[in-house]
Design brief:
The protein is of the alpha/beta class and 477 residues long. 23% of the residues lie in helices and 20% in strands. 26% of the residues are buried.
Amino acid sequence: MSLEEVAESYLDDLINRNLVQINELSIEGKVKSCKVHDRVHEVCVREAITGNALCIINDNHAPKASRWLSVQTSYWPITQARYGNCTPDKIHSVLYFSKGVYHSKCRLVYPCLKFLRVLDLSLVKWSKCMPSEITNLVHLRYLALSTIGSLYKLRFFKLKNLQTLIVTSWIEKCPLQLPCDVLGLRQLRHLHVDKRCSQYLPRLVKKNLQTLYWLKVASLDKKPNFRMVPNLKELGIYIEGQLAPSYLGSLVHLHLLEKLKFEVGRVERFYLPIGFPPNLKKLTLRYTYLPWKEMDTIGQLPRLEVLKLKDFAFCGSKWEPSKLGFWELKAILISHSNLKYWNANSNHFPVLERLIFSAKKLLFVGTTDCPLHVREVRTKVELPNNESYEKEIVENSEESVDRYEEESVKSSKESVESFEEESVKSSKELSFGNSKELSVGCSDQVRLKARKSVRKYLKKKVSKSLNAFKELKRKVL
């Protein structure tokens, strides 16, 4: 197992034990962010402080040497006066959590920091480059920075053990300037930089690199050779300038790539690559302005599960799929689009589970034998699944029955039981149906109409049962 797979297994184990809670899920249903309960957090912090593993630095606590430093103050507390004489291998991680802090000068070379492995300064807004002493921390595995200055003078090549590098600009109009040899780091596994940072693929094969956001590709540059990064799993490409379809042809050699993002800058027209990675599962397009007929090419990707179309990725008022495809597609997100008419049926999306749409109005003109309907047409609304929709109708039914339960418990239960079978059956027709026929209603009117019919049916049945009960009681007495 890779380091990332081991870490994910540990996280899953903590989630299964309810020690860590899921905070947010991605569109495909995977864990996107987590949190811990306040009480669990208190216990963890207390035990870490007691064992001298953690030091929280804020306005109320003086800094001291510990394995982890959690900085939560607006001033720079790591000075030679405070840490200059402590044990050299004491501090392994420095995490800065104070937001909106500006720094122009600081020093990071003290005996206690020589063995530093984690340095997260992503919330610190550096106004003048970065302290050059960072590159002397040769044991760093993780480095996160935020600056608006040039980083050309930083000798990143000295960080031979660096595995994760995150460098961003905290002012959008001030793009970063990074040296071109960053991808040459031997142990680098994950690189996250701003879109407009020019990065070229390394000349030598880098088998450790798994994540690359973003790689800038311009028309004046030479064709990128993705054979140099054969084990990439996630890739974001920012395009500037007109590119021929064959320009990114070497993408087909990324056999392990699962996530691919395209974003376009100053380009008159964007062309889809002539070939995609064979095992691609998640594709995101933004500002590509493609015609909807190009969607047939994407539909032929054999393992695509998630498709995100953002900010006019496709243009045109009508999408009419002409080929069958999207065999494994489970989720679609379409945001900021002028799409109004979608001629689609379940044959085009045989296993679709989630549809998230941000258009105000959308009309489906699909065939009636294999219909594809939309339940919600709102901003990022996750469609309810089959079970949740049926459960909602049944729960509404039970609420109506409760009003009459005191008068005739036995009769109402029999009515409800008989009705539940019919309501579940009818809800399947209104809801998703089976896996081969996706039917997702057309708006809240469908749900409201179903509720009204449920209440009307129950009221009629319960009233009839009560009348029969009263007649029987009259005869007996």
